[in-house]
Design goal:
With 245 residues, the chain is α/β, with parallel strands linked by helices. It has a domain of 169 residues: Rossmann fold (3-Layer(aba) Sandwich), CATH 3.40.50.1580. The chain contains eight helices and ten strands. Strands 5-9-8-6-10 form a five-stranded mixed barrel, surrounded by four helices. Helix 1 runs parallel beside helix 8 and helix 2 packs parallel to helix 6.
């Protein structure tokens, strides 16, 4: 039976995958949440890592000594660096670039093509290219522009390099499929003021405090909510096809 480990940072990024898994069991391993189940005759492990490469690296310990896997997949949302990408589009990585190390973690070409075929069947717009793993959120259009020019990346996220490193060390195929959250021109609010980095849950009281200090930020927060909805719907469509195998 093929064994797949899927890594996503936040609870809302995990839900679209869980909907397509069967016979699911849930457990906590250190700071990570692990769901084990099946999909189309394959054994699927889904690990919620929380935000950031350091947390993702810690979460890889969940599978490091669990026997041989056939694929490690990094997924969830990403910020666009390419101007052509819109919320809900998919970025299928040709490589994940570790911003702190500069190492390129190449993705498996067979699994890239499989992901592309699934995206086409799900009627999702896709782009291929390197994806940058950043240690911090690129919140401004200017920061995204600099990252795009300096690395040639089409999108940016914060966990994939840790997954790529484990795949390289283990000799396991690696893939990365990310749904675009914000465009290259989007100016993001400081979500750290009101979002839990472990789950992605929004703390309502902190939102109220944030808006009291930044009263003009409401339109950006509402736009961010719409972007999250678009990214989540695309992940739902993609994994509905991809996990059907």
């Amino acid at each position: 039976m093929e064994r797949i480990a899927i890594f996503a940072a936040l609870r809302w990024e995990c839900r679209p995958i869980l909907r397509h898994m069967r016979r699911v069991s849930r457990s906590r391993v250190a700071e990570s949440t692990l769901w084990r189940g099946e999909a189309a005759g394959r054994e699927v492990w889904l690990i919620k890592t929380a935000v950031g490469e350091r947390r993702a690296e810690a979460a890889t310990e969940v599978v490091r000594d669990a026997g041989r896997f056939d694929l490690l997949l990094s997924t969830g949302c990403a910020g666009a660096l390419s101007p052509e990408l819109l919320p809900g589009d998919l970025a299928i990585a040709t490589a994940v670039i570790g911003n702190s190390s500069g190492i390129h973690f190449e993705t498996d070409p067979i699994h890239r093509e499989r992901a592309c075929a699934a995206a086409e069947r799900a009627a999702l717009r896709t782009v291929f290219g390197p994806v940058l793993c950043s240690p911090h959120v690129l919140a401004t259009a200017a920061a995204k522009r600099v990252a795009a020019l300096s690395t040639g990346s089409v999108a940016v996220e914060m966990e994939g390099a840790a997954i790529g490193a484990l795949a390289k060390q283990s000799g396991v195929a690696f893939a990365s499929v990310r749904a675009i959250l914000d465009t290259a021109a989007t100016e993001l609010p400081d979500a750290g003021d009101f979002m839990d980095p472990q789950t992605g849950a929004v703390r309502a009281r902190d939102v109220v405090r944030y808006l009291a200090v930044h009263p003009g930020a409401l339109p950006r927060l509402l736009a961010l909510q719409r972007m999250m909805s678009a990214a989540q719907k695309s992940l739902e469509k993609f994994f509905g096809v991809w996990l059907a195998g």
